[in-house]
Amino acid sequence: MTVADVKKSADQRMQKSIETLKADLAKVRTGRAHTGILDHVMVDYYGTPTHIAQVANVTLVDARTIGVQPWEKKMLSVIEKAIRESDLGLNPATVGDMIRVPTPPLTEERRKEMVKLVKSEAEDAKIAVRNIRRDGNESLKKLVKDKVASEDDERRGQDDIQKLTDKFVAEIDKLVSDKEKEVMTV
Question: CA nearest 90: which of 69, 74, 105?
């Protein structure tokens, strides 16, 4: 392993942390409906836990309503039950062969709770990025110890990894501030 390999590995791992944060932030409810809310809800499809999107067509009916149209009629009640029992606080209703999932408007108190949740997710992502920085720095020290790299290479590598860390922490802060605005918008 070389100094360049350590930097590349740190960059890739930090990028994955950002992608994970984006996925987690997509699950946080805002006042508007979006199909991503139902992404992590699983239904029992012939004994196998399956994502809703794999057994039904999930669309937006209007700004506050998600429409779920199962491909098999007998899945209606199973999907409705799965949505109701999820931790999303949604109350689906079956209308013909479609399930309508209205998203209730968020109260001010609930919006503040959502912002706290967003900040908590961001802090977890920052911790992950800092842990990756620490791992990278330890790898650089090991390279010097094994006489694969010089101390100058180690210092330059640590500076580069710190710049990467700063870049990804700034990106996390931007994602969080955008999501905060989205959540607080009535």
Answer: 105
SS3 content of the chain, % helix, strand, coil (to 5): 60, 15, 25
Measured distance CA(186)–CA(175) in Å, rounded: 19
What is d(CA 94, CA 121) in angstroms, rounded to the nearest whole number?
A: 34
Q: Provide the residue-wise pLDDT of the chain in tens; the chain has 186 residues.
A: 788 888 999 999 999 999 998 888 877 766 677 777 887 888 988 888 988 889 999 998 888 889 999 998 888 988 988 888 887 778 888 888 899 988 877 778 878 888 888 898 899 999 999 999 999 999 999 988 988 888 888 899 999 999 999 999 999 999 999 888 888 876
What are the helix and strand counts (H, E) for the chain? 4, 6
Is the sign of the CA dihedral 35, 61, 51, 183 positive or negative?
A: positive
Helices 151-184 and 3-27 cross at an angle (nearest 10°) of 10
Return the residue matching tokens 């977890």.
124
Report yes or no: 186 and 63 within 8 Å, Cβ to Cβ: no
